[in-house]
Design goal:
The protein contains 14 helices and 13 strands. By secondary structure, it is an alpha/beta fold. The chain folds into two domains: 145 residues, Aspartate Aminotransferase, domain 1 (Alpha-Beta Complex), CATH 3.90.1150; 220 residues, Type I PLP-dependent aspartate aminotransferase-like (Major domain) (Aspartate Aminotransferase, domain 2, 3-Layer(aba) Sandwich), CATH 3.40.640.10.
Length: 390
């Protein structure tokens, strides 16, 4: 039987960029000790107060079908949180609750693009972006950034590809680079979107992980609220990665259509998980800061360590739970360095090329193990890079 072209060409190169991660996991399964700095998974786990709320909701009977748009109280809580953080008037009618941020990205592109449309995205990118765009039948076109710009996208580069496109996907604070887009960058992006009538899809799942500067949602910029779809999630802000609860925030008329889409696809998110998410948001910024603090602390550790070494460069890590390390002094690609590091020292990092062409010669290290082990791993990465560069 023949499979559809759409599903067999989600990753047309045959690679999804995660080979080093898979190899590290195979080594772990074989009983080897591997230090994993690969995926964005909190080492602290979901807070027990949230799990207790989830348990109460499940045992209280909220295990049947939940409302497809999301339970009313959670939609209102998300709307209130967004309005407080951005200053943009937001109600529950602007919110659809989704099974995680990835589902929201897929739905947002379905809303913005018809089959065959061009959908733009920024390189480096989270690994699922181009496959998500192909999955809805659109054509993905990457806009490359530059390490010397700290991977801030240039408006003129977007402009060069914007004519005839339907959407632009951005991510700030950024995975994998840790860059937070400046007001100047976002103003340039907004100007291109307005000029070329683009939908802006803004992935803001790392909005609570800001170490330097300020996160600005482009939905708050002039004349952008009606053309911006914001993707959010409980995964990073509340360490609820496995709970799979996220949202889309957008114009009410668009959300009504997205609710219809959810009826025909996901049919909503389990009620007891939504109740736990609602409880978690109600705990306010103190809980969010508690969850973010380990990464803030490790980022400071990393800056101190890297200041003592000259073979590894650090892209300014302004936010998110990752470091983008520049290994070009070694003369190796990110893939080559990551594989040799895994073989020599049993430390797993993600090659920059996993996230596009712009990060070639870099690796991404997730700050997701305890401070002492993280510092030791980073020291090893630096001394290994120095030995190779010599």
């Amino acid at each position: 039987m023949k499979l559809s072209h759409r599903i067999t060409h989600l990753t047309p190169s045959g690679s999804d960029g995660w080979e080093v991660f898979y190899r590290a996991r195979q080594m772990v399964a074989a009983g080897e000790d591997v230090i994993e700095l690969t995926i964005g998974e909190h080492d602290i786990g979901t807070d027990t107060v949230i799990l207790d709320a989830m348990d109460r909701a499940a045992k209280g009977g909220h295990t049947g079908y939940a409302m497809v748009p999301g339970i009313q109280s959670l939609r209102e809580s998300v709307a209130r949180r967004i309005e407080e953080r951005t200053g943009v008037p937001t109600t529950y009618e602007n919110i659809l609750i989704t099974p995680g941020g990835q589902s929201a990205l897929f739905a947002a592109h379905l809303a913005a693009c018809d089959e065959g449309d061009t959908a733009l995205y920024i390189d480096p990118y989270y690994a699922t972006y181009p496959g998500t765009i192909r999955g809805i039948g659109a054509k993905p076109v990457a806009i490359q950034t530059r390490a010397e710009d700290a991977f801030q996208p240039r408006a003129e580069d977007i402009e060069a590809h914007a004519k005839g496109a339907s959407s632009l996907l951005i991510n700030t604070p950024n995975n994998p680079t840790g860059t937070i887009y400046s007001r100047q960058t976002l103003d340039g992006i907004a100007e291109v979107c307005r000029k070329h009538d683009l939908w802006l899809i803004s992935d803001e799942v790392y909005d609570t992980q800001v170490w330097e500067g300020q996160h600005l949602s482009p939905r708050a910029l002039p004349n952008m609220a009606d053309r911006t779809l914001v993707v959010g999630s409980m995964s990073k802000s509340h360490a609820m990665t496995g709970s799979r609860v996220g949202w889309i925030c957008g114009p009410a008329d668009v959300v009504r259509h997205l609710i219809n889409l959810a009826t025909h696809t996901t049919y909503g998110v389990p009620g007891y998980i939504q109740d736990a998410a609602d409880f978690a948001i109600a705990q306010g910024p103190d809980l969010e800061e508690k969850i973010a603090e380990p990464f803030r602390r490790r980022r400071a550790l990393a800056r101190d360590i890297l200041a003592r070494h000259n073979a590894v460069g650090l892209i300014p890590s302004q936010g998110a739970m990752y470091l983008m390390l520049d290994l070009r002094a070694t003369g190796l690609s990110g893939f080559e360095f990551a594989n040799r590091l895994l073989d020599a020292h049993r430390i797993a990092v993600m090659p920059g090329e996993s996230f596009g062409k712009a990060a070639a010669g870099h690796v991404r290290a997730a700050m997701t193990i305890d401070d002492k082990a993280f510092a030791a791993a980073l020291e090893t990465i630096c001394t290994f890079a120095e030995s190779l560069s010599k």
